């Protein structure tokens, strides 16, 4: 189905025509529409145009009003204040536009695809091999997953990348230990659960570390194994692969609990760029972007200095010949730009790594790998805090395991679902399923409703609350609508543009029509919190509509059908919007 022109776009077109007729030099000018408490839309672009034309703003606005075509879309337009235009939409236009969105059987609600989609690589969800995922891994995974969904919905070609830590010195220690104690990981991948896999890895790591710290001969053998790994020794690589496979069992179990899709082709760890490192260094050195300093290959920046005032370089290759994170990240950029043909690179990474990525991106620009046609952006996120406003830790001061946090959220949500099921309409299995959907949704929504670059407090009591800006509030609004539709009997949703609308119906309809604009804004800014704000307002407007406008008890069959229609459009919009956040909308709660 073709995209649906939003009411705001229709108003823009009407105003642009009137502006051109009034002031020919204003052809193509943007009237700058915004929502207003006193009108459906307010245009304030006339003020700027009047100043440019050296005209009286109010007089110019009055002349524009005379040229505006009213009747079909615009019911009324009047001059407000020094030259603003207050615009009221007809009831019929609201219902007709929603009917067009409702008729879209693709589920897109008439939202258009991008005119010129590019290829965006989104780097997110970055766990480490042989290490447990903790609360610090939550934001990268949740924010990245939503950004991917938003971009794909707009028509962008998205390549997922999970840059896992699977290389480096600790693997020499682990590989040597497992080689000498093969029975400690004696099973095939897939035969254990995620928890068992992590338990095996954790036990192995502790044993290997203890031996490494106490036995000099083992330490020497372990360091030799690092060299073998980097050189591609087949036996060493095979043992390393066991760690990767074991870790994936665990990763996938955590991501499954988070209700996130992660697949093998998307996982490209540090090892995936190992063969590119030497060439990356050669290209940087030959181009003069990087220079040798005290034996190391470095990139210097005029605006980046340490506390002593001396330049702080990006070290691409260490003086001993080893490679650091910079070499891997720069090689990844080369791979993504030249092999994957990316036009945008998005890195969903902790804000504490901002300086590193600033230097990496600038280095890539100097090398010509990033330019006006290919840009990189760090979507930096803040820290998850406890109720006390400090970084979230256990009582023992350790980092909270992500699995424990998710399990607690599910337990809390399950209790809420069971408590609300006063008529015992849900089976125990359904309560368990809904509890997981509500609990995981609550965690995701709390994260996504906060601007990514801000810290946020992890408060499960608030997250699973039925009141306020929570996913549970939105999920219950959706479930309530489904309940209304089930109770409607033979009455079916149907649009009736000829009916006069209640103020609450108008407000709900206008906001539902703005879904496409909300998607475009959230995707364009890589800002899922724009979508959560839109959806919360939609649910709030539905609550007001439900309180003020009887649906099944409306005065006429036509009014019943029209209000069921508004309910159904709202439900579809909530469902699609929540899906873009990676959150389920249960039919019954």
Task: Note down, in words, how this protein is organized.
The protein is an alpha/beta fold and 589 residues long. Among the domains are: 7-89, 2-Layer Sandwich (Gyrase A, domain 2); 169-261; 439-579, Isoleucyl-tRNA Synthetase, Domain 1, CATH 1.10.730. It has helices at residues 7-22, 45-53, 57-67, 91-102, 138-153, 169-180, 194-214, 216-231, 234-257, 277-286, 325-339, 354-366, 402-420, 428-448, 460-463, 471-487, 503-513, 515-524, 528-548, 557-579, and strands at 33-36, 39-43, 74-80, 84-89, 119-123, 157-161, 291-293, 296-299, 314-317, 344-347, 375-378, 384-385, 456-457. The protein has a 4-stranded antiparallel sheet. Helix 12 (354-366) links the parallel strand 10 and strand 11 (375-378). Helix 4 (91-102) crosses helix 20, helix 11 (325-339) packs across helix 12 and helix 19 runs antiparallel to helix 20 (557-579). The longest helix is centred in the middle third of the chain and has 24 residues, at 234-257. The radius of gyration is 29 Å and the shape is globular. The model has no long low-confidence stretch (mean pLDDT 92).
């Amino acid at each position: 189905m073709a995209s649906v022109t939003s009411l705001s776009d229709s108003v823009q077109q009407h105003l642009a025509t009137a502006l051109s007729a009034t002031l020919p030099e204003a052809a193509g000018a943007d009237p700058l529409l915004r929502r207003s408490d006193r009108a459906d839309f307010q245009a304030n672009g006339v003020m700027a145009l009047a100043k440019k034309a050296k005209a009286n703003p109010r007089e110019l606005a009055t002349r524009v009003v005379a040229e505006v075509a009213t009747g079909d879309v615009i019911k009324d337009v009047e001059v407000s204040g020094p030259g603003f235009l207050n615009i009221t939409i007809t009831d019929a236009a609201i219902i007709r536009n929603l009917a067009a969105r409702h008729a879209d059987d693709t589920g897109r609600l008439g939202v258009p695809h991008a005119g010129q989609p590019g290829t965006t690589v989104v780097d997110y969800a970055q766990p480490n091999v042989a290490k447990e995922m903790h609360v610090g891994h939550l934001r990268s995974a949740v924010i990245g997953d939503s950004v991917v969904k938003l971009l794909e919905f707009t028509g962008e070609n998205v390549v997922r990348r999970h840059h896992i830590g699977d290389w480096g010195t600790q693997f020499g220690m682990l590989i040597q230990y497992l080689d000498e104690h093969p029975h400690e990981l004696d099973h095939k991948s897939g035969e254990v659960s995620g928890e068992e896999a992590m338990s095996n890895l954790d036990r192995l790591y502790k044993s290997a570390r203890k031996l490494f710290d106490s036995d000099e001969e083992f330490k020497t053998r372990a360091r030799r194994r690092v060299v073998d790994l980097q050189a591609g020794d087949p036996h060493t690589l095979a043992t390393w692969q066991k760690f990767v496979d074991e870790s994936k069992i665990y990763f996938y179990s955590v991501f499954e609990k988070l209700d996130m899709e992660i697949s093998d082709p998307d996982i490209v760890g540090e090892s995936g760029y190992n063969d590119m490192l030497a060439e990356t260094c050669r290209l940087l050195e030959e181009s003069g972007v990087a220079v040798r300093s005290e034996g190391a290959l470095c990139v210097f920046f005029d605006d980046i200095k340490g506390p002593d005032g001396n330049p702080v370089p990006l070290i691409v290759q260490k003086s001993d010949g080893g490679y650091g994170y910079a070499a891997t990240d720069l090689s990844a950029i080369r791979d993504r730009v030249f092999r994957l043909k990316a036009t945008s690179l998005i890195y969903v990474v902790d804000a504490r790594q901002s300086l590193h990525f600033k230097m990496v991106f600038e280095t890539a620009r100097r090398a010509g790998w990033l330019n006006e046609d290919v840009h990189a952006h760090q979507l930096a996120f803040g820290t998850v805090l406890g109720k006390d406003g400090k970084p979230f830790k256990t009582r023992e001061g350790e980092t909270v395991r992500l699995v424990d946090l998710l399990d607690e959220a599910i337990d809390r949500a399950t209790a809420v679902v069971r408590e609300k099921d006063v008529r015992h309409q849900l089976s125990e299995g359904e309560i368990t399923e809904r509890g997981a959907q509500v609990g995981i949704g609550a965690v995701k929504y709390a994260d996504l409703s906060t601007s990514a670059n801000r810290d946020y407090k992890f408060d499960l009591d608030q997250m699973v609350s039925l009141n306020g800006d929570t996913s549970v509030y939105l999920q219950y609004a959706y479930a309530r609508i489904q309940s209304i539709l089930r109770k409607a009997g033979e009455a079916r949703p149907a649009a009736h543009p000829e009916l006069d609308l209640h103020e609450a119906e108008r407000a709900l309809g206008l906001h539902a029509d703005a879904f496409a604009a909300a998607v475009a804004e959230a995707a364009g800014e890589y800002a899922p919190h724009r979508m959560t704000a839109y959806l919360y307002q939609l649910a709030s407007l539905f609550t007001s509509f439900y309180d003020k406008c009887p649906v099944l008890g409306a005065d006429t069959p036509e009014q019943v059908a029209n209000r069921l229609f508004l309910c159904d459009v709202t439900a579809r919009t909530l469902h699609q919007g929540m899906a873009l956040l990676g959150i389920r909308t249960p039919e019954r709660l």
